[in-house]
Amino acid sequence: MMKHSFCKISVLFTLLVLLGCSRNEIKVYDNEISLINEAKADVEMITPEDFKAILESHTKYYLIDCREEIEYDSSSIPGAINIPKGLLEFQIGNKVPERRTDIYIYCSDGQRSVIAASILPQLKFPNVKVISDGFNLWKQKYPELVETEHPGAAPKSNSPPVSSGGCGG
Question: What is the pTM of this model?
Answer without folding.
Answer: 0.74
